[in-house]
Amino acid sequence: HRIAAVQExxxxxxxEWTDEEFSSYCARFYKPYWLALNQDNQIRNARxxxxxxxxxxxxxxQIHVDEFKNISELxxxxxxHPGLFARMTGAIAVSGASIQDAKVFTTKDxxxxxxxxxxxxxxxxxxxxxRLERLKKTIERTLAGELLPRKELEALRRxxxxxxxxxxxxxxxxxxKASNRYTVIELNGLDRPGFLYMLSQALVDLKLSIGSAHIxxxxxxxxxxxxxxxLFGHKVDNENKLKKIKEKLMxxxxxxxxxxxxxxxxxxxxxxxxxx
Length: 276
Description:
By secondary structure, the chain is α+β, with helices and mostly antiparallel strands. It is about 40% helix and about 25% strand. The chain has a four-stranded antiparallel beta sheet, sandwiched between helices. This is [Protein-PII] uridylyltransferase / [Protein-PII]-UMP uridylyl-removing enzyme.
């Protein structure tokens, strides 16, 4: 069994843990967690969580800079609550970092464990000591309610940008068959500061809970897949609610971007027929 093999390797690496401590730790996580991360991440997370629990820390922020992969991994361990993921992504955007990938997990005892792979907007490694410290402080202030990402990012979006037309066709696809537990939403759009925050905040505004999120960027195109449910933990299957979700997410995809030129009209029509 794959999960058992992952746990066995992790247990062997955590030589300082007792069998009882390790069993208790494993019991806190749902199955997808064990298959989503490599062993190095699993080891770092286990030790970070153990220390945070021992010190009774309500918020733990850990940053691992990987020079070889040209990426920094930001891991946040905190008490889970509605809107937490959106606030995290907003804080990261306000700090000037670009999110390349995100993995969202919740434990069975109500904690959130989210990992973000971040870079500089130009693709460089996000490793400057002062910027990393500012990132941590911004996350702390945001989660404490002292800083509002929506307000900060609105000011940023008012500045002129090079994105003066659609270079990526916006698309919203909703699938209720891909997962037994969640409604799956795939979004394609133009990558820009606060992109992930705008999408996740739209879901929060719709009173939806994000169970998992997967992000990938391909040049200017950002592809995001959300696994969502309602606040009662159920899939969203009401047609009117699904229509509203699609409308609000499309608004978020288009926020701050000038309309496409008329020469793209035929292509737009074709894509709308495919997506509707």
